[in-house]
């Protein structure tokens, strides 16, 4: 039996599966304080006596460098109460089993790479557009990372000529996350993304920002597939807009697969992250 935690900035999801990764129980709860969240995590997993390993995909930034004194910490997050929190350490104090540890987007990327839309590829990049924006990439079975994990949501982009919004990122203002995340939409218009019309001008603006990001990732990393998930991508009109603007911006400078197969949404849907967590657990043995 394996356990998994998808630790998001808005909510946590915990699940247990059999060795074939078939999930037979899951719970979710809001991301409140570390103390309250840990209590709910322990309450869920403590009912099972035969969990062999747990995989955690966490919101960040986090420390993934095993030799670092803060390995396993959530570090400089703007999420109140979670800054410099030793998440992995608290889990290891409670459970004497292997625990896999990476970012939430790396976990989702792993899910799509191993059993989802990139199963036939040697490389893929996963980008999530939700409460924040983050990205992870896998090449030949390994996560991209060195001194730390990528922070793909904080790249700088050109502002759309019709967008005078200052951005919501507390560190960079109008970076990709500051301009294209879910909270940026709500801050602009006072309503959540799903409440806006499908032909609202914001979708063209957001597509411009996401297309710019995909061009940058393409030129730097050259993945075989870019998978874009997260709550904002539940708006069905945005994917085609991103692909159209990506094709225009790239201008055939480098060869890429057809846009319809290159920039896609997750095959696993909202299960990509928790599935990746279960794979982390399995791979930690």
TrEMBL record:
It is an enzyme of class 2 (transferase). Keywords: ATP-binding, Carbohydrate metabolism, Kinase, Magnesium, Metal-binding, Nucleotide-binding, Transferase, Zinc. Belongs to the ROK (NagC/XylR) family. This is fructokinase. The keyword Magnesium applies. SUPFAM superfamilies: Actin-like ATPase domain (SSF53067). It comes from the Bacteria. Its cofactor is Mg(2+). GO terms for molecular function: ATP binding; fructokinase activity; metal ion binding. Its EC number is 2.7.1.4. It catalyses: D-fructose + ATP = D-fructose 6-phosphate + ADP + H(+). It holds the Pfam family ROK. InterPro entries: ATPase_NBD, Carb_Metab_Reg_Kinase/Isom, ROK, ROK_cs.
């Amino acid at each position: 039996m394996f356990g998994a935690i998808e630790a998001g900035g808005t909510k946590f999801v915990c699940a247990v599966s059999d060795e074939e990764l078939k999930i037979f129980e899951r719970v979710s709860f809001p991301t409140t304080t570390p103390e309250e969240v840990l209590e709910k995590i322990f309450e869920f997993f403590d009912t099972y006596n035969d969990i062999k390993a747990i995989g955690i995909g966490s919101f960040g930034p986090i420390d993934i460098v095993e030799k670092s004194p803060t390995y396993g910490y959530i570090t400089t997050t703007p999420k109140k109460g979670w800054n410099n929190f030793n998440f992995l350490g608290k889990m290891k104090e409670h459970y004497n089993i292997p625990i896999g540890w990476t970012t939430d987007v790396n976990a989702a990327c792993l899910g799509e790479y191993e059993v989802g839309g990139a199963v036939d590829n040697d490389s893929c990049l996963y980008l999530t557009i939700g409460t924040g924006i983050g990205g992870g990439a896998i090449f030949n079975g390994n996560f991209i990372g060195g001194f730390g994990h990528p922070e793909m949501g904080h790249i700088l982009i050109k502002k759309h000529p019709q967008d005078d919004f200052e951005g919501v990122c507390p560190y960079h203002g109008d970076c990709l996350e500051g301009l294209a995340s879910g909270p940026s939409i709500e801050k602009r218009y006072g309503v959540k993304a799903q409440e806006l019309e499908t032909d609202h001008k914001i979708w063209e603006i957001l597509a411009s920002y996401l297309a710019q990001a995909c061009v940058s990732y393409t030129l730097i990393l050259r993945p075989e597939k870019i998978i874009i998930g997260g709550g904002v991508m539940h708006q069905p009109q945005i994917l085609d807009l991103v692909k159209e603007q990506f094709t225009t911006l790239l201008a055939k400078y480098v060869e890429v697969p057809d846009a319809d197969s290159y920039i896609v949404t997750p095959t696993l849907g909202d299960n990509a992250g928790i599935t990746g967590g279960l794979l982390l657990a399995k791979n930690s043995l």
